């Protein structure tokens, strides 16, 4: 099991594997954990993506187009000089020549990008690599690696669209290209990420000499941009690992498929994702993917790219065995229960996290819950057991404190499901978290009881369970 901490810069939710409690999480040994593990939530991370954080930068969708239509839009420009009826001085002539040249370069570049995108979707490696300058061996090798990785991931939507007018630089042009990608499912809704490119402008066609990767401000680089990956695709998931973890690929896919089968049952408000996308990072990738700088003891994180698309990363050295499926159950639960939510639900932390833990533990006896011991110590220390007083663990909280809070959140949601039935509990979640209805009002409508009565009974159940 795991413990989470939000990365305030990237909006990611980190999943931490602490050592034996108590003590500050950050001071724990990077070795394999021997104590209880605390689960982290997607929670506030989704808000960063939906309300203007870094993930919001990639949410634009206007670039998507069918393959048979060019993405280029040529705007008429008012050219200086005689085109406006004025005198054509040498300065105006130079400006007109520059504008015409830039328009020619923009048109040519977009045609090249369209052809490269089509080549990837049609499986034509030679045509995908063709724009590269023949003298740029490293670039050609990198394009071939990307081609192989993306084809293995069964890329189904791909576009390359100029993000603006190309800028002249020494020896050629610099251009921002918006990459749109999605995998496996026909008609999938791609997400965009901007990358920088550079082109030489000598005699003949423009030649690609640099094809960059996205930066941290755009939640980059994405794993497929910079890493050689081994990929497996299942009915519900796509999983990818660095070469060093190729031996874990089959087990990762099996765990992801099991977790998806559980999480899909809780996609009550919209369809589940066409595929859940999961990456397993090694030590090198852990500090580079998505620009999310995580401590070495963090087990994984879920990153909302848009309100409908979340990518999940697990820390290979830290997450093994049954921890993989358990971590993914929890995170997939966030994906399906929080999809399309566009409001701030941070004040309902206990309910967001409690539901994710409920999904992870559904069908299992309470005796199998790994946080029971730390939750008992939390309660015996006299800390809050009522949901009205239960807040998200502080950034500097100990593993013991965080474990106890997650345990109380889980038991509270489990009691609601046992007392009133799972359907009513989920409707309550919908009203409070997804719609923003005040908990007392939602409780009166769904449970037919006062909020004070419900929270009191709930706290009693928590204390009895942990006594």
From TrEMBL:
Keywords noted in UniProt: Membrane, Transmembrane, Transmembrane helix
Organism listed in the record: Planosporangium mesophilum
Region (Disordered): 1-31, 78-99
Protein known as: Peptidase MA-like domain-containing protein
Amino acid composition bias (Polar residues), ranges on this chain: 87-99
Entry's transmembrane regions: 37-59
